[in-house]
Amino acid sequence: MSEKSNDRGIQLYTKEFYAACTLGGIVACGPTHSSVTPLDLVKCRLQVDPTLYKSNLDGWKTIIRKEGFSKIFTGFGATAIGYSLQGAGKYGGYEFFKHFYSNSVLGPELSSKYTTGVYLMASATAEFIADIMLCPFEAIKVRQQTTVPPFCNNVFQGLSKIYTLEGLQGFYKGIVPLWCRQIPYTMCKFTSFEKIVQLIYSKLPKPKSEMTTLQQISVSFTGGYLAGILCAIVSHPADVMVSKINNDRKSGESMVGASKRIYQKIGFGGLWNGLMVRIVMIGTLTSFQWLIYDSFKVKVGLPTTG
């Protein structure tokens, strides 16, 4: 990948480029994840107790009736902060590590042969770092959503309460299952997106360079939705375990011990509780994230992804 400028004067693979991509990740992830908080709330509760609600609609009706309308947005604040930070690390990091692995590790000749490997390594590295920023807020969100009455009323109360009760360890006791969920998810998300978008462009009657911005962003939206379905399926079992462990890990219990105990309780079938809800949620999230991210890149004068 050679460095070059675009019409807006931002040189690719410079500090300004990565800053723009990082900001784009915040704009793409924070609002989209926050907007589906009601869906995420029902999903997390069903993962912990599949008999709690008959459907999403039943879940919302029950929550509104018993807890009040505002409670369907339980976890909104932690979601907004956590996934904004994660989006910064994920998207900005992906652009950085994609260029780093292509040029500094493999070199142009090898990277052109092993593009899939570059996408996988870059997305995995970026997500590993992004999850360190996300984990404390994910811990607060899950506890808020899976306890009635909620574990805390807001993010700051949650931070204070967890730190007082468990110290820093309390914020990161779910980091391993979070990595197990998010790293495969992001590897699938970015790699399948790149490949799907390449396939779509190869089937269209004219090359990407001759397409309008709206046409290119439409391709990103379509590729994002299809990639979202795939990564939702790949990461779902770990998503269930994140909810279970944050909700039900006993004091002093190891991660392995907690995982074994929970798996013995729910079995293989339990790992797939809430899958259809998550497919709808993640497919929608991923498509809109790519739509927003690439629209933001175009707005600041950068090319669309893919």
Automatic annotation (TrEMBL):
The chain crosses the membrane at residues 270-293. It comes from Zygotorulaspora mrakii. GO terms for biological process: copper ion transmembrane transport; mitochondrial phosphate ion transmembrane transport. One of its GO terms (cellular component) is mitochondrial inner membrane. This is Mitochondrial phosphate carrier protein. Belongs to the mitochondrial carrier (TC 2.A.29) family. Transport of phosphate groups from the cytosol to the mitochondrial matrix. Keywords: Membrane, Mitochondrion, Mitochondrion inner membrane, Repeat, Transmembrane, Transmembrane helix, Transport. InterPro entries: MCP_dom_sf, MCP_transmembrane, SLC25A3/Pic2/Mir1-like. Solcar repeats lie at residues 16-100, 114-199, 215-299. PANTHER family: SOLUTE CARRIER FAMILY 25 (MITOCHONDRIAL CARRIER PHOSPHATE CARRIER), MEMBER 3, LIKE-RELATED-RELATED (PTHR45671), SOLUTE CARRIER FAMILY 25 MEMBER 3 (PTHR45671:SF10).
